[in-house]
UniProtKB/TrEMBL annotation:
Residues 144-300 form the Lnb N-terminal periplasmic domain. The keyword Membrane applies. The keyword Cell membrane does not apply. The chain crosses the membrane at residues 20-43, 55-75, 81-99. Keywords: Membrane, Transmembrane, Transmembrane helix. It comes from the Bacteria. This is Lnb N-terminal periplasmic domain-containing protein. Signal peptide: none annotated.
Amino acid sequence: MVQLQSHAGEALAGPHIAWYVYVLRSCLALVVLGACAWGAMALTYRCPGPGFVRYGVVALWVLLGIAALLALWRVRAGASLKGWPLAFTFAMILLLGWWQTIRPSNDREWAADVAEMLDSRQDGTHVTLHNVRNFAWRSETDFTPRWETREYDLDKLVSADLVLSYWMGPAIAHTLVSFGFSDGRRVVFSIEIRKKRGQKFSAIGGFFKDFEATLVAADERDILRVRSNVRGETVYLYRLNIPPAQLRRVFVAYLERAAELRREPAWYNTLTSNCTTIVFEIARLIAPGLPLDYRLLLSGYFAEYAFDQGGLTPGFTYAELQARGNFVARALAAGDAPDFSAQIRQGVPGDDPRVTP
């Protein structure tokens, strides 16, 4: 009787052990697969040396990962993981160690449009900005570079506009903020990738330390017009519903971020440190209770998120604000006119006093 019960217990335990081993193998396989994919991309973008060396290293890495995966599925229950899985683990430790040695820098051969970094000086309410970009763009490769020094009075700061420029479908947009002063001055702040000379933008490369970050201060006829008139992007402008007392805090927060990047170079990250996340971080300084939302990652929907939080001009539906905020046709008509900023704001709620709910 006892012997029969023992055999029955072993029979029941067998399937449970087999299931446990299957789940464990599956989880380990997913970890190896993910590590193999991440390592291959990291090596593709950052492995030093000529192309044939880089891709040779990537091929060896992928083969090592495949060998580790095959070995995981060949081990029996109770056997220790030896051989290829351990070799892959050791290689992964070395890869992570090397990855930590790759540090951002402000000392490279930069592309012309990000060659200079914003430098600010504040004396009470008087702010001096050095290296404000004011390029004359004729095409993406034909332009006249101009870096200027401009002065602003924070007591005259009266408005801020959110600008979204769409270049890759409805879910992805570049986010900029333009500040307006009662004397007619305007300046746009934008977190941008700092491309090296001859380098092209890659959203995937932005995950793998391929670009440093820089904060650009620019004239609207430069940084907005190059998107609407030169690159052919679809650009929207929304007046932000920020109380005057808090505008200065937002403006100064941008200056502080620029100063941080001058002191300590940082990587641009497509997901966690980009043009939209800085807007959210600064907004949270004013309203700490702002909720996290998927639209912070899918930046093309960030204006809708701002609307839901009461951050855009009240009295209008989001559809109305979006339709009126598309200024591409007005920008094309304005060209390089001195009143470009006024023309693109015609009909925009909050910016055009003639437009009321």
